[in-house]
Amino acid sequence: YLMTFRNATIVLFMAILWTGCTNTPEANKVESTKLDASLINNPRSATATDEVLAQLATMDFEDTAHDFGRMYDGETASYDFKFTNNGKAPLLISNAAGTCGCTVPNYPHEPIAPGASAVIAVKFNSASKVGLQNKSVNIFTNSAKGTHTLHINAEVVEK
User: Measuring CA to CA, how many Å separate 81 from each of 115, 119, 149?
Assistant: First the structure.
């Protein structure tokens, strides 16, 4: 009886695996919003020439730091960091991440054409952050520089 129960369990387990791993056309669909990987190619390296770097996108900010000044514990504030792609290729931002969960960037997910401008909005939540705060946001791109860093500061005081 034990051997039959064991065999039945194995067969049932195999059936679940087989039906769960079917390769349907729906499972293979790629979202239409995904970018072609060839657009993200960045030839920047130790051996890249000035001519190669001059053909890439740029990410030129009006300013890379903002001071929110004095804030009360629990307040939120936001600042728009404006930038322009002064390069020769579309600018792609693959990710933007704050150094803390209290600092949240919102960035464009579509390519920024050469000559076009856009904004990265950075929201800071001061809850439980009493004291001087220095936070940063790292932005990962296909620009000639690669990674860009934005900084925010605030003095958070108790209510």
Answer: 17, 5, 11
